[in-house]
Amino acid sequence: MSARTRLPAGIRLGPVGLAVRPRALAATAVLTAALLGAVALGLFTGSLAMPADRVLAALAGSGTRIENLVVIDHRLSRTLAAVLVGFALGCSGGLTQSVTRNPLASPDILGVTSGAGFFAVLLATRPEVASRVGDGPAAEVLAPAALLGGLVTTGCVLALSWRSGFDGLRLVLVGLSVNALALAGTSWLLTRAELEEAQVATRWLTGSLAGVRMPDVALMGPLVLLGILACLRVSRDLGALRLGRDVAPVLGTRPARTEAWALLTAVLLVAGATAVAGPIAFVAFVAPQAAMRLFRTAGPPPLAGGLAGAFLVLGADLVAQWLPAELPVGIPTAVIGAPYLLFLLNHHRRRTSA
Question: Which uninterrupted H or E stretch holds 12?
Fold first, then answer.
């Protein structure tokens, strides 16, 4: 080995091995600091002005009933939900893009999000359920339906695109077709629903954090922890899989098992996030790509993508709250994500033609 060749330092805990790189450490520190700053803004600012000492008192459990209602039930729950939902979406996007080796293969494009949304709307448009959902999402009501929808949609996409393995382009094309069918089904459900039920479902479909409460946060917490552990477990195998399904077995990786675990984890994360906040567009697509460029990794990093997704969703929600007319968080993320999709497509076209 050359004297100038340096292998990255690393740590290993049982089956989990992590390489420590200065660039990744610096990017993680910057992104974490930005996320903590956004969390502080979410807790200490809002439509109702409140002194910082009273916010701290409420967080410490010694606030008044009104202060606890504003800080704990509204600001803290909404901020934590934004972080957890954003992390889940960004992490799931990193997993699907790594498995397919295609930057367009996010849960949005593959139809996982729309499938989860279709099953949730199928349940939400029932009169007895619409009355429980009310003005905001109700994760305990919609989570089973969203999870089932995500699993069914993913199963359809994988079954239709499997040809002795997964081809990235074929998977995207099948996903777009299934996504269109799920969106058409959702539109059909809305046209058949009563006006009040359709309004409830439409508000939820926009993607909003306005109605989240601590039970929603309690649902997302274990899912995000599960996603983190799964990503740590398959991180090495995903790195080998990026080299190709033919090369991965030589490096001791079982491609089919890695793909199955990664996709299952992505579906669970997306279904939970969709149940809590509704379908939030483009986060799962943009966050891993932004993290890949910030961390300068060979492929979309799921955990770093989750960190970028948490900052993106929380930042978009803060912007939506500060506008004269508060918007659902799905609108700012779409404003950010749509131009980025066009940029990525144009960049891919130029690279291909070159």
Answer: strand 9-13
Query: Do residues 132 and 141 lie in contact, with contact meaning Cβ atoms separated by under 8 Å?
Result: yes
129 — pLDDT class (breaks 50, 70, 90): low
pTM for the structure as a whole: 0.85
Nearest to 237 by CA among 227, 245, 229, 225: 245
As a whole-number percent, the residues of the chain with pLDDT over 90 amount to 19
> Cβ(102)–Cβ(168) under 8 Å?
yes
Instruction: Please tell me the distance from the alpha carbon of residue 310 to that of residue 79, in angstroms, as a whole number.
Output: 10
* Cα–Cα distance measured from residue 146 to residue 116, given in angstroms and rounded to the nearest whole number: 4
Cα dihedral sign, 13-18-19-21 = negative
Cα–Cα dist 195/304, whole Å: 42
Question: Quick check: 289 and 344 in contact, CB under 8 A?
Answer: yes
What does the pLDDT look like over 32-78, one tens digit per residue?
Answer: 999 999 999 999 887 777 888 888 888 888 878 888 888 888 899 99
CB atoms within 10 A of CB 1: 6
Structure tokens at 189: 């459900």
Domain boundaries, the chain: 58-341
The CATH number of domain 58-341 is 1.10.3470.10:
yes
The encoded tokens of residue 143 equal 């989570």
Inter-residue contact 87 to 307 (CB < 8 Å): yes
Q: What is the rounded CA–CA span in Å between residue 339 and residue 281?
A: 13
User: Is pLDDT above 80 for 27?
Assistant: yes
220-246 pLDDT per residue, tens: 899 899 999 999 888 888 878 777 777
- Cα 158 to chain centroid distance, Å, stands at 20
Q: Is 199 exposed, middle or buried (0-12, 13-18, 19+ CB in 10 A)?
A: middle
In the structure, what pLDDT confidence band is assigned to residue 140 with cuts at 50, 70 and 90?
A: low
